[in-house]
Amino acid sequence: MNNGCKRRLIPFYFIGIIVGFILAQTEKNLNQNIEQATFGAGCFWCVEAVFQDIEGVLDVKAGYTGGTTENPTYEEVCGGRTGHAEVIQIEFDSSKVNYEELLDLFWVSHDPTTLNRQGADVGTQYRSAIYYHSDSQKVMAQKSKDNANNIKLYSNPIITEISVLDTFYIAENYHQNYYRLNKNASYCQLVIKPKLEKLNISK
């Protein structure tokens, strides 16, 4: 390659460096905005559907946490032998939706005043729970719960558990995207769809 060609390539070389730097900074900023939240609010099929299409929510996984058994199965959790709650773990972009806004939706999307029960679903696995990922989430969750109680969001006191997240076990594949993949199932039609309509969440 002659010197003339090399000189003509120099501007492209620097442009490539600049573009690479910009892309790296953009990815870094995006990663800084990505956070997680873990909520238990009854059957995870229903809770997943509530949060899945919220702007800023990047991913929702159904799973189990809060118990003592490692790698629990759905049958074990439903049998009440593991101590785990059915939960969802949300990955979200905090520049588009913040943790407090997710908490606001959490309170109105289920009944946090009933112990180990949501509607016809009864058992410790259906308990209302917030599993925080950081000290700041713990503070925000407690403040949000206190505020909901103070304004009498419900006539009965909110009894939601607020605990540090231990191990999150992702649920079996057939539990993921349950409403999207099973809209005609009876539980989806009788329980999930009416709840989404009540919350003005279109699917």
Q: Overview of this structure, please?
A:
This protein is an alpha+beta fold and 203 residues long. The chain has one domain (33-198): Peptide methionine sulphoxide reductase MsrA (Peptide Methionine Sulfoxide Reductase, Chain A). It has helices at residues 3-33, 44-52, 74-78, 99-108, 135-150, 178-181, 186-198, and strands at 34-41, 57-65, 85-93, 117-118, 121-122, 128-132, 161-164, 169-170. The longest helix has 31 residues, at 3-33. It starts with a helix and ends in a 5-residue tail after the last helix.
Keywords:
single chain; 203 residues; alpha+beta; Peptide Methionine Sulfoxide Reductase, Chain A; two-stranded antiparallel ribbon; 7 helices; 8 strands; globular
What would you say the CATH architecture is?
2-Layer Sandwich
Provide the β-strand percentage band: 15-25%
Give the total of domains.
1
Gyration radius, to the nearest Å? 22 Å
Kindly report the average pLDDT value: 89
Compute the number of strand runs: 8
**If you consult CATH, what is the topology?**
Peptide Methionine Sulfoxide Reductase, Chain A
Q: What best-fitting shape do the alpha-carbon axes yield? A: globular
Structural class by helix and strand composition? alpha+beta
Number of helices: 7
Low-confidence stretches: 18-29
Largest sheet report: 6 strands, mixed
- Strands in their spatial order, largest beta sheet: 7-6-1-3-2-8
CATH domain class name: Alpha Beta
Distance between the termini: 59 Å
CATH superfamily: Peptide methionine sulphoxide reductase MsrA
Helical content stands at 40-55%
Element-by-element helix/strand order: HEHEHEHEEEHEEHH
